[in-house]
Design goal:
The complex is a heterodimer. By secondary structure, chain A is mainly alpha-helical. Chain A has eight helices and no strands. By secondary structure, chain B is mostly helical. Chain B is 77% helix and 0% strand. In chain B, α1 crosses α2, α2 packs antiparallel against α3 and α5 packs antiparallel against α6. Chain B is globular. Classes of the chains: A mainly alpha, B mainly alpha. Chains A and B meet through α1, α2 and α3 of A and α2, α3, α4, α6 and α9 of B.
């Protein structure tokens, strides 16, 4: 069974602490000594408490940036395939258009459909001339 | 020698050091016990006491006797203790250690603790209180000071002090109920 703790017990109000022998006699001389030497305070400032930790954190941040910078400088750049195709196609189209004149476009030999349709037989050609050109025109040609 | 005489002596040319030594002799012990109950260890209490007395020495020329000398010294010592506790917490935070565990260990390992087991448990419970509640509780419970006196030292209203003491009392009872 748990024992009940009585906060109003007078024993609890008694001072449970002690001090080293002769301590209070030393206080006066310690304080006088510090006053005469001009030593104002012995405790450390917030900066001195946090200094080692802040240095550690800043070191980590600097190392991180160095490693990150080295990776981004020396690693090969990989671009997306869609972008490459699009850019190369547009370059091809652009260059093709610039190098091709209007006449080249109609005389293009690769256009086999057009060339086959316009082939004329030599017999047909002579027949056409003989029917349509008179003797004067023939004489002037000579 | 009463406070008025001590202050009159202090203001006499060339007698500042002598008068201040008398003030230290008269009040250092009472101030020490006040600080010790708030801070815990003897080493910390000793540092805080010396810093408080040096601050008092530096500020004594500006002391206008608007409050009693003892109240004024008590205020310096209390503020100095609160600043010290804040710094200790900051130090524990930066060293990634558990402050409450540190305080508990301090009570366990204190070579200048002369109390029994019940007093040790009670001390641990008090050290778990927030700093300002601990100040109010200590002044009222151990030093049996009137609320008006505490109000004069801490610059807090009597109503706020009563509420603070009530909360502290309840918290200690809860902690003790859990630990016993």
């Amino acid at each position: 069974m748990k024992k009940k703790f009585d906060i109003n017990n007078p024993k609890l109000k008694e001072n449970p602490f002690t001090v080293p022998d002769g301590y209070f006699l030393e206080v006066r001389s310690s304080v006088s000594e510090r006053i005469s030497t001009g030593n104002r305070e012995s405790h450390s400032s917030v900066w001195s408490i946090a200094k080692p930790q802040l240095i550690l954190v800043s070191s980590f941040v600097i190392i991180f940036f160095i490693v990150y910078g080295a990776f981004s400088l020396f690693s090969p750049t990989v671009k997306g395939p869609e972008v490459t195709i699009l850019s190369s196609n547009s370059q091809y189209l652009e260059e093709g258009f610039l190098k091709t004149t209007f006449v080249d476009f109609f005389d293009f030999e690769g256009d086999t459909t057009t060339s086959a349709d316009h082939k004329i037989d030599s017999v047909e050609l002579i027949t056409y001339i003989s029917e349509n050109i008179d003797i004067i025109t023939l004489a002037s040609l000579e | 020698m009463d406070d008025k005489d001590l202050l009159a002596l202090y203001r006499e040319q060339g007698k500042e050091n002598y008068a201040f030594n008398l003030i230290v002799d008269k009040y250092s012990e009472r101030l020490y016990w006040h600080i010790r109950k708030l801070a815990g260890s003897h080493e910390d209490a000793n540092d805080i006491l010396q810093n408080s007395l040096i601050k008092a020495w530096g500020a004594l020329p500006q002391f206008r006797e608007e409050s009693r000398l003892y109240t004024w010294l008590y205020r310096i010592a209390t503020n100095e203790t609160l600043t010290f506790l804040k710094r200790s917490k900051l130090r524990a935070f930066f060293s990634l250690s558990d402050y409450s565990k540190q305080v508990e260990n301090q009570v366990e390992a204190d070579p200048f603790f002369n109390g029994d087991e019940a007093q040790r448990i009670f001390r641990k419970a008090i050290m778990k209180l927030p700093d300002k509640q601990r100040v109010v509780f200590t002044m009222r419970y151990y030093e049996e000071m009137k609320y008006e006196e505490i109000s004069e030292i801490l610059g807090t209203s009597v109503g706020a002090l009563k509420a603070s003491y009530h909360h502290a009392f309840q918290k200690i009872q809860d902690i003790l109920r859990e630990s016993v």
